[in-house]
Amino acid sequence: MSAPKPDAAPPEGKNSIQVIERMMKLLDVLAQHADPVPLKQLALETGLHPSTAHRILGAMTGTGFVERSEAGVYRLGIRLLELGSLVKSRISLRETAMPFMLKLHAATGESVNLGVRAGDEIVYVERTSSGRASVRVVHIVGARAPLHTTATGKLFLAEDGAERIRDYARRTGLPASTPASITTLPALEKELDRVRRHDVGFDLDEVEAGVRCIAAGIRDDSGELIAGLSLLTPSDRFNPDWAPLVRETADEISRALGFSAPRTR
Taking a C-beta distance cutoff of 8 angstroms, is the pair 150, 134 a contact? Predict the structure, then answer.
């Protein structure tokens, strides 16, 4: 006598998953349109039967995920905005960045810093320590350094307009930390042009002699520059070829924070 066949999964489970998939299709299509969309067009673009699309949209309207106007057109609902704001408020820059910082640290064996702007200075808020020979640097958590001498600071200055850069130079006087520090406005402007072209900043013995940095910017979901990721090395181990890796890692953190780079043609 043959063994009984196992019971098939209940159709309700399969149907539930199918409904969720259809809901996501509808939400994705609505997200692609700036203006409200009629039912017929939603059905066409999702491949759903109009009656099926209407039934699912009705359920989502009742929960606030979709809104339906008197004209019978649909758009994304306020509930999605509420959930999005909640998710954004719970995203921590430091917690989000740390796994990527550790990956960069593992790939290079060098220290990785996370810095944010505080007025005319960069404040270091997180760091992975190098497992190699220690280097005495000011780049420790809570330490500060002038914008114009740091790789991360140059990223923020490069975002400023010409007048704000001149104001910074007048306000601070561009003090030197080492003989390699930039101390004149023309030299700073030339350096910031280089930062904009390559999308990375460098500190070549400018904060402390014998220490160099490569930094790339981290952006939030609005596209605002909110931090810089920097790879710190002794000058004798400095490798400018690490710049693309630093930039890619910063881009990964930006995407994890919700940033979506504009598509290039």
Answer: no
List residues bridging with 118 in a β-sheet. 121
Q: Where do runs of H (alpha helix) occur along the chain? A: 11-31, 39-46, 50-63, 78-90, 93-108, 151-159, 162-172, 185-198, 243-256
Q: How many CB atoms lie within 10 A of CB 16?
A: 11
What the block records as the tokens of 128 is: 């992975």
Tokens of 259: 């940033």
Can you give the pTM of this predicted structure? Answer: 0.68
Phi, psi of 5 (to 5 degrees): -75, 145
- Amino acid 218: pLDDT: 97
Kindly write down the DSSP assignment for every residue of 211-260, as one continuous string. Answer: EEEEEEEEE-TT--EEEEEEEEEEGGG--GGGHHHHHHHHHHHHHHTT--
Helix 185-198 vs helix 162-172: angle between axes, to the nearest 10 degrees? 130
pLDDT in tens, 127-173: 887 555 444 444 556 788 999 999 999 999 999 989 999 999 999 99
Residue appearing with tokens 């330490």? 143
Query: What kind and span of H or E run contains 75?
Result: strand 73-76
Q: How far apart are CA 205 and CA 216, in angstroms?
A: 18
Residue 139: the pLDDT is 52
Tokens of 250: 């910063």
